[in-house]
Amino acid sequence: MNIYVxxxxxxxxxxxxxxxxxKFGQVANVTILKDxxxxxxxxxxxxxxxxxxxxxxxxSGLDGKSLGGRNIRVNxxxxxxxxxxxxxxxxxDRRxxxxxxxx
Length: 103
Known about the structure:
Blueprint: E1 2-6, H1 14-22, E2 29-34, E3 41-48, H2 52-62, E4 66-67, E5 70-71, E6 73-76
Antiparallel strand pairs: 1-3, 1-6, 2-3, 4-5
């Protein structure tokens, strides 16, 4: 089961997070999401636990508890939703012209 962990201290590392969750069972994977430019934590992570019972125990036991000086939010991760592809771009015609009268 995949678990979302939010409101993490930016100093919390994967080992510290793993240790907190291992009190409730086996931890398969810990991923702290980082900013792609600075490499610093974005303040949330995903923890994967193999069994539903252990994951639920971790959610119940850790949600709202202090870790690294912050009260973390812990709940079942929702499936990632599809994002609309492509970028915005304006509504400007590429052929030029911006309206108005030409003289």
